[in-house]
Specification:
heterodimer, A: mainly alpha, Histone, subunit A, two-stranded antiparallel ribbon, 2 strands, flat, B: alpha/beta, Amidase signature (AS) enzymes, 11-stranded mixed β-sheet, 15 helices
Amino acid sequence: MISKEEIKNLAELARLELTEEETASLQKDISNILDYVGQVSAVADGVEQAVPPHHNVMREDVPRRAEDPLAGKEETLRAAFPKREGSYNVVRKIIQKDE
Amino acid sequence: MSNLSELTINEASKKLAAGDITAVELVRACLENIKAKNGELNAYLEVFNDVEAQAEAADARRAAGESHPLLGIPLALKDNILVEGRRASAASKMLEGYVASYDATVVKKLKEAGAVFLGRTNMDEFAHGATTENSAYLPTKNPHDTTRVPGGSSGGSAAVVAAHMALGALGTDTGGSIREPASFCGLVGLKPTYGMVSRSGLIAMGSSLDQAGPLTRTVADAELIINAIKGKDPLDSTSTDVFSKNTAPKKIGVPRHLFTSGVDQDVLENFESSLTTLKTQGYEVVDIELPSAGLALAVYYVIMPAEVSANLARFDGVRYGLSQSGTSLWEDYAKTRGEGFGPEVRRRIMLGTYVLSSGYYDAYYGKATAARETLRREVAEAFTQVALIATPSAPTPAPKLGEKTNDPLTMYLLDIFTVTANLTGNPAISVPMGTVEREGKRLPVGLQLTAAHGNEDTLFVVGKEIEK
């Protein structure tokens, strides 16, 4: 069974705030699911992956305003900002004094 | 007038073309049904307030000489498909009030064809589920028995079509989310070949698995919609027009080794009788072995959460959607994501984070991708011998509301027959094959047919035989 510390560590990696109660229920659920999907560990290694049908789909490095669904929609995108000042998106300062 | 909403898309299309009915009359019939039934079924999250105006515009386009089979046809859209200027929430509190800034390519194509959009339909949050009970906006109920689920995750789209609140709908299918609700609601549901339909403007779940497709009352209607939405799109580099025709003989392969347990007896009886129908139509039915298919569900529940954890990392409260503040940047993220995502979404993000984390990656994600490749080869090999593979769409009819919510694994098992086509990229359709009785109610069950990549036409031909 996966430990409570592992659940807390995963939640930290995944940027999820969990309650104590949910930590316990996830410990049980994730363990059960891992038991089930653990069947895949029986699969042999070294299966060579086929060449995918799409390989390095490229385009010229030029603006494609005509096809761009967001062309001219700058204001729509700004309108979705959770916190806005003029045309700027206000975000938290990420470099802090004690770091 | 209200029986206009019971027309198939093809029937309505002919009447519109002949001038027997107008698009406005057609949408009024749907709106009347919505008014009568949506309160109980909770299938639409929002009915658009300009439906009649859209229909008037379609009628005007026809009067000006335009014609398209979908011109003036009222359709519903799953809530993870973007329409510019309209809300799209993926049935999540994370995106409550979010307004889409552009049209999904499928929407753009349907607008060009002249379809009318009635509204956005309920779903499992971010398409994570098989019953529509994981919606942040209450479950949808099955029109055939309102004590039961409609299936999921495209459960709202299935319910609106089954209850004649739309003539057809778009859903998305990552592991069965179109086919399984089609089976539970007595509809046709198609997951196209991976790459056939552009994913641009769909709220992503598992990017190597996702496809959008139709839920309709007939195979011919599904064909009409797919022809309107398919095609290579510069905005989705995995989309393509290039497929080769499968020339295998009129044989249908049945991997019976997969149904030795866990499938309801009366579902199997319906399955056998639909095979008999196909035999009388000149198809040979042969047993095939797909040795890795028994592992498909385990493989899927490694690969899908891995892709989910990556795709849902974008919901960080910085650019759009829910945004909560804590005392640090980490807390801002964690509070936003802790409150915005529901329990099943959090579970899948955690699971995906686990299988991708250093130390477990090789044992889970590495093994799963190897098994996926083996499965792809087995299925490709089968299609050198047979034109189609047949299975039931789901092991049971629609479960009761609440029956599958206590243990996530029992809900995952509903996907057992559908996930393979997503892992291998093959097209697969669910077609009604009969009904089974539960507690005095007749419940529909579906037949799943899978074809070689790009061979949707074979699904339509054989699907129509089953419909007869």
